[in-house]
Amino acid sequence: MLKVSGVSTSYGKIQAIKNIDLHVEQGSIVTILGANGVGKTTTMKTIAGLLTPKQGKVEFMGEDVTGLRPDQLVRKGISLVPEGRAILSNMTVLENLEMGAYHRKDKEIEQDIEKEMERFPILKERQKQLGGTLSGGQQQMLAIARALLTKPKLLLLDEPSMGLAPLIVADIFKIIKEINQAGTTVLLVEQNARQALKIADYGYVLETGKVVASGKASELIKDPRIMEAYLGKK
Ligand code: ATP
């Protein structure tokens, strides 16, 4: 479904990712792991069209989508939940959800908003509250629901568990698995390696902008070298 080939992205003279290759098969959960600052967010932003690669190619559903704008990629079915969630704090929960569907012209928007509120009952309860008044976990749920309202084929999640309490983290991972089982392919960036590998099919490990290991999640999680060298946390 997604094929990233030889992609390099720079910030001015700083090359943040170098010659990255990634594959995401339709229906799977793929995770990108690695320490702070190794280029995970840069990779996600490049796939979502927020950054343009200096080299390489991004293909989605067999089509070359390299260099397309984020809104064009959203229409093709790629939606990013950014690191830090990017909730609109001065808009209500309902308005935030409506923003997710802003480019849609179909008649199912209200019905889909209702569906997301069933998936996340707390959002229904708080629909009139301002986004900024939600807790971190609730904001993450809102950001995920908003992204799902774009009707993505591929959902990109950048560190969804960041800054959340362990119980909430468990909820978020459970929800990600459910979203995947309902048919959405997921590319997940995480520092919480063990939890990510538990729900993922395949994983990539990044170090200083390069892929240094990859494999089936069930094998990566058993590989002591990988777990010790890169995934020491939790
Ligand atoms: P984090 O866990 O902090 O999100 P990351 O693995 O996602 O880290 P990136 O944010 O992709 O890493 O950063 C990769 C490299 O690019 C780092 O060395 C970082 O300092 C650098 N970098 C990131 N954003 C910028 C920017 N806007 N301008 C210059 N350098 C940047």
Automatic annotation (TrEMBL):
One of its GO terms (molecular function) is ATP binding. Keywords: Amino-acid transport, ATP-binding, Nucleotide-binding, Transport. The keyword Lyase does not apply. Residues 2-233 form the ABC transporter domain. Signal peptide: none annotated. SMART domains: AAA. Pfam families: ABC_tran. InterPro entries: AAA+_ATPase, ABC_branched_ATPase_LivF/BraG, ABC_transporter-like_ATP-bd, ABC_transporter-like_CS, BCAA_Transport_ATP-bd_LivF, P-loop_NTPase. Belongs to the ABC transporter superfamily. This is ABC transporter ATP-binding protein. The lineage of its organism: Bacteria, Bacillati, Bacillota, Bacilli, Bacillales.
